Amino acid sequence: MTQSDRGFKLRSRDGHFEMAGFDLKRVEGGYWMWVECKFDGHNGGHWLAPDPAMPEAITMLYEPYLWSDPVAAFTARDRWETQQNRDSR
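Structure (tokenized):
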């Protein structure tokens, strides 16, 4: 059984605003966090995971990463958005 909590958040890049989708999926043993990606001609999404090269950073993967609880998954999403805002300046 899979439970999904879908949401949207407004984001901007180079003055262009759009709704960014995210999806928290409950799976056996934890949660997956998916983030929609529609920038630069890419129309799809990625799974958020800790960056093995920099433990404080978040990276995107093509395969789901198992977060232990929803708080950890949402915290990762927030950290990823902070990274995106910092990197786009």
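The chain has one domain: 3-87. The first helix runs from residue 70 to 87.
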